[in-house]
Automatic annotation (TrEMBL):
<dbReference type="InterPro" id="IPR008979">
    <property type="entry name" value="Galactose-bd-like_sf"/>
</dbReference>
<comment type="similarity">
    <text>Belongs to the CIA30 family.</text>
</comment>
<dbReference type="Pfam" id="PF08547">
    <property type="entry name" value="CIA30"/>
</dbReference>
<feature type="domain" description="NADH:ubiquinone oxidoreductase intermediate-associated protein 30">
    <location>
        <begin position="6"/>
        <end position="154"/>
    </location>
</feature>
<dbReference type="InterPro" id="IPR039131">
    <property type="entry name" value="NDUFAF1"/>
</dbReference>
<dbReference type="InterPro" id="IPR013857">
    <property type="entry name" value="NADH-UbQ_OxRdtase-assoc_prot30"/>
</dbReference>
<protein>
    <submittedName>
        <fullName>NADH:ubiquinone oxidoreductase complex I intermediate-associated protein 30</fullName>
    </submittedName>
</protein>
<keyword id="KW-0830">Ubiquinone</keyword>
Length: 160
Protein backbone atom coordinates (compact mmCIF):
# COMPACT_ATOMS: atom_id res chain seq x y z
CA UNK A 1 0.00 0.00 0.00
CA UNK A 2 1.11 3.52 -0.78
CA UNK A 3 -0.68 6.32 1.06
CA UNK A 4 -1.71 9.36 -0.98
CA UNK A 5 -3.11 11.14 2.07
CA UNK A 6 -4.26 10.20 5.55
CA UNK A 7 -5.34 13.65 6.81
CA UNK A 8 -2.80 13.78 9.63
CA UNK A 9 -1.54 17.05 11.05
CA UNK A 10 0.80 17.43 8.05
CA UNK A 11 -2.23 17.70 5.72
CA UNK A 12 -3.38 21.26 5.14
CA UNK A 13 -7.10 21.69 4.48
CA UNK A 14 -6.26 24.71 2.31
CA UNK A 15 -4.78 22.25 -0.21
CA UNK A 16 -8.32 20.94 -0.82
CA UNK A 17 -10.59 23.19 -2.90
CA UNK A 18 -14.37 23.03 -3.08
CA UNK A 19 -16.21 23.77 -6.29
CA UNK A 20 -19.97 23.86 -6.66
CA UNK A 21 -22.50 24.54 -9.37
CA UNK A 22 -22.10 28.23 -8.45
CA UNK A 23 -19.54 28.30 -11.29
CA UNK A 24 -22.55 28.01 -13.64
CA UNK A 25 -25.17 29.95 -11.67
CA UNK A 26 -26.25 27.28 -9.15
CA UNK A 27 -26.54 27.81 -5.42
CA UNK A 28 -25.18 24.60 -3.87
CA UNK A 29 -22.89 25.03 -0.85
CA UNK A 30 -19.98 22.91 0.33
CA UNK A 31 -17.16 22.96 2.83
CA UNK A 32 -14.01 20.95 3.46
CA UNK A 33 -12.13 20.78 6.73
CA UNK A 34 -9.74 18.47 8.52
CA UNK A 35 -11.07 17.58 11.95
CA UNK A 36 -9.06 17.16 15.14
CA UNK A 37 -9.59 13.40 14.65
CA UNK A 38 -7.60 13.54 11.36
CA UNK A 39 -10.67 13.13 9.16
CA UNK A 40 -11.22 15.05 5.93
CA UNK A 41 -14.83 16.24 6.15
CA UNK A 42 -16.60 17.19 2.91
CA UNK A 43 -20.13 18.41 3.60
CA UNK A 44 -22.81 20.76 2.40
CA UNK A 45 -26.06 21.02 0.48
CA UNK A 46 -26.70 20.27 -3.19
CA UNK A 47 -29.42 22.47 -4.68
CA UNK A 48 -31.15 22.05 -8.04
CA UNK A 49 -32.03 25.76 -8.27
CA UNK A 50 -30.78 27.65 -11.34
CA UNK A 51 -29.98 24.33 -13.11
CA UNK A 52 -27.43 23.43 -10.42
CA UNK A 53 -26.87 20.10 -8.77
CA UNK A 54 -23.30 19.29 -7.75
CA UNK A 55 -20.54 19.86 -5.23
CA UNK A 56 -16.94 18.73 -5.50
CA UNK A 57 -13.73 18.88 -3.50
CA UNK A 58 -10.39 18.46 -5.28
CA UNK A 59 -6.74 18.19 -4.35
CA UNK A 60 -3.53 18.48 -6.37
CA UNK A 61 -1.18 15.62 -5.55
CA UNK A 62 1.76 13.71 -6.92
CA UNK A 63 1.14 9.99 -6.75
CA UNK A 64 3.14 7.59 -8.88
CA UNK A 65 0.72 4.77 -9.68
CA UNK A 66 2.48 2.70 -12.36
CA UNK A 67 3.13 -0.19 -9.95
CA UNK A 68 -0.39 -0.11 -8.46
CA UNK A 69 -3.75 -1.29 -9.77
CA UNK A 70 -6.27 -0.10 -7.19
CA UNK A 71 -7.22 3.07 -5.36
CA UNK A 72 -8.49 2.45 -1.81
CA UNK A 73 -10.54 5.04 0.08
CA UNK A 74 -11.37 4.56 3.74
CA UNK A 75 -14.45 6.64 4.38
CA UNK A 76 -17.74 7.05 6.15
CA UNK A 77 -20.58 8.37 4.07
CA UNK A 78 -24.22 9.15 4.56
CA UNK A 79 -25.68 6.38 2.41
CA UNK A 80 -25.53 8.50 -0.74
CA UNK A 81 -23.78 7.97 -4.08
CA UNK A 82 -20.55 9.83 -4.87
CA UNK A 83 -17.84 9.78 -7.52
CA UNK A 84 -14.11 9.60 -7.10
CA UNK A 85 -12.31 11.48 -9.87
CA UNK A 86 -8.66 11.46 -10.89
CA UNK A 87 -6.50 13.21 -13.48
CA UNK A 88 -3.02 12.29 -14.63
CA UNK A 89 -2.55 15.79 -16.04
CA UNK A 90 -4.26 18.79 -14.43
CA UNK A 91 -4.36 20.55 -17.82
CA UNK A 92 -6.82 18.05 -19.31
CA UNK A 93 -10.48 18.96 -19.16
CA UNK A 94 -11.81 15.45 -18.60
CA UNK A 95 -11.68 13.41 -15.40
CA UNK A 96 -11.45 9.66 -14.99
CA UNK A 97 -14.28 8.71 -12.66
CA UNK A 98 -15.79 5.83 -10.74
CA UNK A 99 -19.11 6.02 -8.88
CA UNK A 100 -19.51 4.46 -5.44
CA UNK A 101 -22.24 4.32 -2.83
CA UNK A 102 -21.64 4.76 0.88
CA UNK A 103 -23.44 2.70 3.52
CA UNK A 104 -23.41 4.99 6.58
CA UNK A 105 -20.57 3.06 8.29
CA UNK A 106 -16.79 3.17 7.98
CA UNK A 107 -15.82 1.22 4.88
CA UNK A 108 -12.94 0.86 2.47
CA UNK A 109 -13.93 1.32 -1.15
CA UNK A 110 -11.54 -0.34 -3.62
CA UNK A 111 -11.65 0.74 -7.26
CA UNK A 112 -9.49 -0.65 -10.05
CA UNK A 113 -7.75 2.25 -11.76
CA UNK A 114 -8.32 0.55 -15.13
CA UNK A 115 -12.11 0.66 -14.50
CA UNK A 116 -12.13 4.46 -14.21
CA UNK A 117 -13.61 5.99 -17.36
CA UNK A 118 -13.33 9.47 -18.85
CA UNK A 119 -16.09 12.06 -18.31
CA UNK A 120 -16.39 15.75 -19.15
CA UNK A 121 -19.31 17.85 -17.88
CA UNK A 122 -21.42 14.77 -17.21
CA UNK A 123 -20.80 13.12 -20.58
CA UNK A 124 -18.68 10.06 -21.22
CA UNK A 125 -15.62 10.77 -23.37
CA UNK A 126 -14.69 8.22 -26.04
CA UNK A 127 -11.12 7.48 -24.95
CA UNK A 128 -9.62 4.46 -23.19
CA UNK A 129 -10.06 4.01 -19.44
CA UNK A 130 -7.34 5.32 -17.11
CA UNK A 131 -3.92 3.79 -17.77
CA UNK A 132 -1.65 6.58 -16.56
CA UNK A 133 1.56 6.44 -14.56
CA UNK A 134 0.65 9.30 -12.19
CA UNK A 135 -2.28 10.82 -10.38
CA UNK A 136 -1.86 14.58 -10.17
CA UNK A 137 -5.37 15.52 -9.11
CA UNK A 138 -7.98 13.70 -7.07
CA UNK A 139 -11.56 14.74 -6.31
CA UNK A 140 -14.84 13.64 -4.79
CA UNK A 141 -18.15 14.75 -6.29
CA UNK A 142 -21.80 14.46 -5.34
CA UNK A 143 -24.44 15.13 -7.99
CA UNK A 144 -27.43 12.80 -7.63
CA UNK A 145 -29.97 14.95 -9.50
CA UNK A 146 -31.76 15.81 -6.26
CA UNK A 147 -31.60 18.47 -3.59
CA UNK A 148 -29.91 17.00 -0.52
CA UNK A 149 -27.59 17.56 2.39
CA UNK A 150 -24.41 15.49 2.28
CA UNK A 151 -21.55 14.48 4.53
CA UNK A 152 -18.53 12.43 3.45
CA UNK A 153 -15.77 11.68 5.98
CA UNK A 154 -12.42 10.63 4.51
CA UNK A 155 -9.86 8.79 6.62
CA UNK A 156 -7.29 7.81 3.98
CA UNK A 157 -6.65 7.47 0.27
CA UNK A 158 -4.07 4.91 -0.85
CA UNK A 159 -2.89 2.83 -3.78
CA UNK A 160 -2.40 -0.91 -3.76
Amino acid sequence: MKTITDFTSSTDSKEWHTITDAVMGGVSKSNFEITTDNIGLFSGYVSLKNNGGFAMVKHHTTAYCKDFTTICITLKGDGKAYQIRIKENTATKHWFIAPFTTNGDWQTIEIKLSNMYAMFRGNKVDIPNFNGDNINEIAFLIGNKKAEDFKLELKSIALK
